[in-house]
Write a structure and sequence with these properties.
Order of helices and strands: EEEEHEHEHEEEEHEHEHEEEHH
Helix content: 25-40%
CATH superfamily of the largest domain: Periplasmic binding protein-like II
Number of helices: 8
Bound molecules: arginine
Shape: globular
Length: about 230
């Protein structure tokens, strides 16, 4: 129902949580616009496949429910392809590798790896793969508590204030934060888990999924993908 025809060009509603640089974030020159690796990539695919995009901002853990209810047509939000999520959505081919990293306060001398988190407090983005990893550590009785927050910037604030001891978050995003805000956190393990991101569509929406996959192949073949890569990494 979200699809409408404007001059015969289909418009798809794309859900994202746009506080996740370098993948999706507000343009500092125009905060109404979102920019980022994912944004450029899906725009290139849309152009290649002849569709248009309308963005819808949601919290990360609201994206899959919004897809299932038909509120949005696809998720473009640095979303990791997982077996668990495969049960509720269909993923495109992977479009980038991005694993999980462990970070602590810049002056933390105690936690040097995942082996040192016993009895500690984790902070993660709600609904994320980082949260799943922290939940695992909690259910194994290794860590004391998990704090779930909506945005990565809030997560870092909890590390900074000492409310939490460590964060588990996507490596490129944590790295990007560190470049923008030097001296707050440091990465102590950059490969807790290796993952790939995919675009998600509603289960069975093969028409849109085929376009996404075909467009991805085309923009990879014509050099556009590498150009976008060079712009953000
Ligand atoms: N890759 C992680 C996941 O899929 C985190 C993604 C968060 N994305 C975002 N736009 N906030 O769970």
């Amino acid at each position: 129902a979200a699809e409408e025809i404007v001059d015969a060009v289909p418009v798809y509603i794309v859900g994202t949580e746009p506080y996740f640089p370098p993948f999706e974030y507000a343009d500092e020159n125009n905060s109404n616009e979102i920019i980022g690796f994912d944004v450029d990539l899906i725009n290139a695919i849309a152009e290649d496949q002849g569709f248009e995009i309308e963005w819808k901002d949601l919290e990360f853990d609201a994206l899959i429910p919004a897809l299932q209810s038909g509120q949005i047509d696809m998720i473009v939000s640095g979303m990791t392809i997982t077996e668990e999520r495969e049960e509720s959505v269909d993923f495109s081919e992977p479009y980038i590798n991005a694993g999980l990293s462990l970070a602590v306060a810049a002056d933390n001398e105690e936690i040097k790896s995942l082996d040192d988190v016993r009895g500690k407090v984790a902070v993660v983005q709600q609904g994320s793969t980082g949260a799943m990893k922290a939940d695992e550590l909690k259910s194994e009785g290794i860590i004391e508590e998990v704090i779930y927050l909506a945005h990565v910037s809030d997560i870092v604030m909890n590390i900074h204030s000492g409310r939490a001891d460590f964060m588990i978050n996507d490596l490129p995003v944590t790295k990007s934060y560190m470049v923008q805000n030097p001296g707050v956190i440091k990465i102590v393990d950059d490969d807790i888990q290796s993952d790939s991101y995919g675009f998600a569509v509603k289960n069975g929406n093969t028409e849109l999924l085929n376009m996404l996959n075909a467009g991805l192949v085309n923009v990879q073949a014509d050099g556009t993908y590498d150009e976008i890569m060079g712009k953000y990494f």
